[in-house]
């Protein structure tokens, strides 16, 4: 048959292509890894992607100091070690770190509050990039501002590195609750609400009409067990990021397997009972209520 | 009697396929009941199946473990339609040159995963497809390439490489017809 390929017609980095990538991750688990060995464990467990980091958030917390993008050589090594997508974290507002990660060839960039913010006033203009971005949010205003800047995926911020799911639940409930409120509003009321939460009105209408965020919405920040992951799915999340919860656990391989299975069976308690058995100790963690305000990461980048 | 359409739902863009099937059936004037399949026992009740895009390592692992894989094979052997897109194409193929993915051997091609490159190489483009009058808006995301075709009909090529094929009741694409609002590939797979 004829091949009428017209390469002039080919378009990369469009919203459809970026958001489409995020959609491929749905129903999946994205795991934080710091080296190729961990990346392979994640891939074997059925992770849909890995997040390549220098240290998991729990260790970033302990270590203190300035948290930056990982060494690109380490990220590249992880990119070359697995067949699933690899993501990398750039500091909030640090366009150059994001450009370097894009040059490395990561499949998605996380503009993340887990790292020390580089810019107090502006996030990265994500529309400039071919690579899609994921950003954290605590509420609808934050989520829609990030989408307006070009984010193709939103995740709850939660409180990273704590192993306490409390804040991820709070942020997801907040976002869902605000969208539910919108659904009962008139057009003018939505416009006023958009001004109140400092969000683009078109995106507010879109979220109201869809009854959800207009991009894929994952849970992140403090997910430490299969039950935590399943809980977040009951809150209508599209998938799960697990940071310190896997390689901070006593048996990372078993924990990784179990969390992937739990996301597939989130609505089946009998299956979750089997999946949750005999996994060894979960990460110890820090309860959110015990954390001093100044140590919380979630307030970074609003 | 309404059509029972199953979407393999362990991971990936499942709701998009479900919505595309509903649109396609509405256009064909057919009542449809769409079921998401995350456990064994549902595939045998389905008239048509879609295997979505997502991560082929994850999807193949979970459908094996849940016992869905063998049901999909039986579905195709019974001559019932299957639409397999992107990761679904990889899982349906004879071989993916990768021991991280166990394939179902219901589609007589071999594929190379991520052969169009990483996400930065992902693209959209209009594509001529045999049997469709106008070009189809094809979205390729870390797409696989069909590197060897057996006894199949090639429906579309991009830059000389097959990206849509038909093998009896199976239609498979490297791209994602479920990501656009164009339901022609779904209608081609299920009603022609």
Automatic annotation (TrEMBL), chain A:
Into which EC class is this enzyme placed?
lyase
What molecular functions are annotated in GO for this chain?
A: pyridoxal 5'-phosphate synthase (glutamine hydrolysing) activity
Q: Which residues bind D-ribose 5-phosphate?
A: 32, 161, 222, 243-244
Protein residues bound to D-glyceraldehyde 3-phosphate:
173
The record's catalysed reaction(s) read:
aldehydo-D-ribose 5-phosphate + D-glyceraldehyde 3-phosphate + L-glutamine = pyridoxal 5'-phosphate + L-glutamate + phosphate + 3 H2O + H(+)
Q: What is its EC number?
A: 4.3.3.6
* Pathway named in the protein's UniProt entry: Cofactor biosynthesis; pyridoxal 5'-phosphate biosynthesis
Q: Which UniProt keywords apply?
A: Lyase, Pyridoxal phosphate, Schiff base
Residues annotated as catalytic? 89
Cite the PdxS/SNZ N-terminal domain residue spans from the record. 16-220
Q: Which GO terms describe its biological process?
A: amino acid metabolic process; pyridoxal phosphate biosynthetic process; pyridoxine biosynthetic process
Q: Which InterPro entries match?
A: Aldolase_TIM (IPR013785), PdxS/SNZ (IPR001852), PdxS/SNZ_N (IPR033755), RibuloseP-bd_barrel (IPR011060)
Q: How does it assemble?
A: In the presence of PdxT, forms a dodecamer of heterodimers.
Its function, per the record, reads: Catalyzes the formation of pyridoxal 5'-phosphate from ribose 5-phosphate (RBP), glyceraldehyde 3-phosphate (G3P) and ammonia. The ammonia is provided by the PdxT subunit. Can also use ribulose 5-phosphate and dihydroxyacetone phosphate as substrates, resulting from enzyme-catalyzed isomerization of RBP and G3P, respectively.
The record's annotation in NCBIfam families points to: PRK04180.1, pyridoxal 5'-phosphate synthase lyase subunit PdxS
Q: What family is this? A: Belongs to the PdxS/SNZ family.
PANTHER family attached to this UniProt entry: PYRIDOXAL 5'-PHOSPHATE SYNTHASE SUBUNIT SNZ1-RELATED (PTHR31829:SF0)
Name of the featured protein: Pyridoxal 5'-phosphate synthase subunit PdxS
Protein species of origin: Natronosalvus hydrolyticus
UniProtKB/TrEMBL annotation, chain B:
Q: Which CDD domains match?
A: GATase1_PB
**Known pathway:** Cofactor biosynthesis; pyridoxal 5'-phosphate biosynthesis
Residues reported to bind L-glutamine: 54-56, 113, 141-142
Entry keyword annotation includes Hydrolase: yes
InterPro entries given for it?
Class_I_gatase-like (IPR029062), PdxT/SNO (IPR002161)
Provide the alphabetized UniProt keywords: Glutamine amidotransferase, Hydrolase, Lyase, Pyridoxal phosphate
GO MF terms listed in the record are: glutaminase activity; pyridoxal 5'-phosphate synthase (glutamine hydrolysing) activity
- Please name the PROSITE patterns in this protein's record: GATASE_TYPE_1, PDXT_SNO_2
- Report if keyword Hydrolase is assigned: yes
Its Enzyme Commission number(s) read: 4.3.3.6, 3.5.1.2
Q: Name one Pfam family in it.
A: SNO
Q: Which GO terms describe its biological process?
A: L-glutamine catabolic process; pyridoxal phosphate biosynthetic process; pyridoxine metabolic process
Q: Which sites are catalytic?
A: 86, 176, 178
Q: Which reaction does it catalyse?
A: L-glutamine + H2O = L-glutamate + NH4(+); aldehydo-D-ribose 5-phosphate + D-glyceraldehyde 3-phosphate + L-glutamine = pyridoxal 5'-phosphate + L-glutamate + phosphate + 3 H2O + H(+)
One GO cellular component term noted in the UniProt record for this chain: cytosol
- Source organism's superkingdom? Archaea
Assembly, in brief, is: In the presence of PdxS, forms a dodecamer of heterodimers. Only shows activity in the heterodimer.
Job description of the protein: Catalyzes the hydrolysis of glutamine to glutamate and ammonia as part of the biosynthesis of pyridoxal 5'-phosphate. The resulting ammonia molecule is channeled to the active site of PdxS.
The family assignment reads: Belongs to the glutaminase PdxT/SNO family.
Supply the name of the protein.
Answer: Pyridoxal 5'-phosphate synthase subunit PdxT
Species assigned in the record = Natronosalvus hydrolyticus
Kindly list the organism's lineage. Answer: Archaea, Methanobacteriati, Methanobacteriota, Stenosarchaea group, Halobacteria
What gene name is listed for this protein? pdxT
């Amino acid at each position: 048959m004829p091949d009428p390929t017209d390469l002039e017609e080919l378009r990369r980095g469009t919203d459809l292509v970026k958001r489409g990538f995020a959609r491929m991750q749905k129903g999946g688990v994205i795991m934080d890894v710091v080296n190729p060995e961990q990346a392979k464990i994640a891939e074997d467990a059925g992770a849909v992607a890995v997040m390549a980091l220098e240290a998991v958030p729990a260790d970033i917390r302990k270590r203190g100091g300035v948290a930056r993008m990982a060494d690109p050589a380490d990220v590249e090594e992880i990119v070359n070690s697995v067949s699933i997508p690899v993501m990398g974290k750039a500091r909030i507002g640090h366009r150059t770190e994001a450009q370097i990660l894009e040059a490395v060839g990561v499949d998605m960039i996380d503009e993340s509050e887990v790292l020390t913010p580089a810019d107090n006033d502006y996030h990265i203009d994500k529309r400039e990039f071919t690579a899609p971005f994921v950003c954290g949010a605590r509420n609808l205003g934050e989520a829609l501002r990030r989408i307006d800047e070009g984010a193709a995926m939103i995740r709850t911020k939660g409180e990273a590195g704590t192993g306490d799911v409390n804040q991820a639940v709070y942020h997801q409930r907040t976002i869902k609750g605000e969208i539910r409120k919108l659904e009962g509003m008139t057009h003018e009321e939505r416009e006023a609400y958009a001004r109140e939460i400092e969000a683009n009105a078109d995106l507010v209408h879109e979220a109201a009409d869809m009854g959800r965020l207009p991009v894929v919405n994952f849970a992140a920040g403090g997910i430490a067990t299969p039950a935590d992951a399943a809980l977040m799915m009951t809150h209508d999340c599209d998938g799960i990021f697990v940071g310190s919860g896997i390689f901070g656990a006593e048996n990372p391989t078993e924990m990784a397997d179990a969390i992937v299975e739990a996301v597939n069976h989130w609505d089946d308690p009998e299956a979750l009972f089997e999946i949750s058995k005999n996994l060894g100790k979960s990460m110890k963690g820090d309860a959110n209520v015990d954390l001093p305000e100044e140590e919380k990461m979630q307030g970074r980048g609003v | 009697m309404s059509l029972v359409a199953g979407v393999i739902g362990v991971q990936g863009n499942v709701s998009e396929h479900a919505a595309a099937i509903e649109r396609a059936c509405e256009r064909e004037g057919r009542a449809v009941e769409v079921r998401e399949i995350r456990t064994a026992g549902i595939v045998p009740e389905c008239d048509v199946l879609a295997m979505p895009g997502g991560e082929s390592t994850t999807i193949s692992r979970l459908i094996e473990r849940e016992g869905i894989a063998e049901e999909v094979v039986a579905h195709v052997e019974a001559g019932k339609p299957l639409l397999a897109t992107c990761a679904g194409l990889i899982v349906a193929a004879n071989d993916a040159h990768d021991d991280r993915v166990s394939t179902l051997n219901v589609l007589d091609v071999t594929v190379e995963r991520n052969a169009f490159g990483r996400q930065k190489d992902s693209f959209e483009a209009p594509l001529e497809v045999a049997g469709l009058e106008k070009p189809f808006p094809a979205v390729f995301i870390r797409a696989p390439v069909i590197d060897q075709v057996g006894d199949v009909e090639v429906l579309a090529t991009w830059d000389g490489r097959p990206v849509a094929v038909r093998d009896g009741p199976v239609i498979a694409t490297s791209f994602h017809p479920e990501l656009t609002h164009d339901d022609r590939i779904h209608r081609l797979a299920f009603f022609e």
